[in-house]
Amino acid sequence: MQTPSRSLGRLIWLAILGAVVLVSSLPVRGADKRIVLIAGKPSHPPGMHEFRAGCLLLQKALASVPGITVQVYDGGWPSKVVDGARVDDNAALDNADAVLIFSDGGKGHPAIQADHVKVIDGVAARGAGLGFAHYGVEVPAGPPGEAMHRWVGGYYETNYSVNPMWKPAFDKFPDHPITRGVGPFATHDEWYFNMRWAPEGAKGRMTPILVATPSDEVRKGPYVSPRGPYDHIIAASGRPETMMWVFERPGGGRSFGFTGGHTHANWGDPNQRRIMLNALLWIAKVDVPKGGVQDQITPADLTTNLDDKTKR
Fold it and tell me: Is the pTM of this model over 0.85?
């Protein structure tokens, strides 16, 4: 015969055991992730190179994804006011799990100003994700190009790569987390191609994501600038070209390059938007949902936060 104290002890033990089983069966949520979107300064006519509006749209689209925080810094780089003067705030990237630069490029690319190459090298060294979109994939050849090879495996090189306005048909995708839930789409945009890829034997693994074959008419130009045509582009007639790629860096860091994004209205295409949203999760090492990111973006959202281009 059990005493009351033994019965009570057995009940307590069974309750504890049940709680342990229940807790062990619940999904484990990883640590929250922080994604930083760096929007470039205003440029181009209205509706084009809307970096701030584009980043704020992506931020809103990711708002329903649990476990992540998305911060947008405009003006081309995080900054703060010290003694009445605005200065770079490099520390804003210290604990970022992923950083996207959506901006103008070339000699004015935010990543190659001041000590920013060193800062981004540090971000990459700790395994955080890196993304570069549209003009943000272009830097001058030489040390800036070598930095892009380290960070993302390729870049747009003036007079080698090209920037025509055209409408590639993206209808086949690799089996990759970034392509989950993405259906065929085609948007008329300044889709760059013929990137300067890292030399053979370089460290890291590149995987094409958005691939299409330009017509001979597209290859013959005109390109946006310089207008071309270039003999080496024409000579590659019939060759598929990569407009988005992912790069797995040595040490486990993840990156991507995306050459579209010139025309802001094209973010209204749910498939173009989804592949970018999926990519941001992937480089931050967040599991991409089976059907890709599902957002609540409406046509009205595409008309908000646009730059006042009259002030340029």
Answer: yes
**Residue numbers of the domain that contains 141:** 30-311
Cα–Cα distance measured from residue 135 to residue 142, given in angstroms and rounded to the nearest whole number: 17
CA distances from 112 to 48, 109, 139, 154 (A): 23, 6, 8, 15
Cis peptide upstream of residue 177 (ω within 30 degrees of 0): no
Is residue 200 very low, low, confident or very high in pLDDT (cuts 50, 70, 90)? confident
Cα-to-chain-centroid distance, residue 47: 20
Q: What is the tally of structural domains in the chain?
A: 1
CATH number where 96 lies: 3.40.50.880
pLDDT of residue 310: 82
d(CA 54, CA 267): 8
Mean pLDDT, residues 281-291: 97
For 68-124, give the secondary structure using H, E and C: EEEEEECCCCCEEEECCEEEECHHHHCCCCEEEEECCCHHHCHHHCCCHHHHHHHHH
DSSP3 helix / strand / coil % (the chain, rounded to 5): 35, 20, 45
Residue 23, domain member (yes or no): no
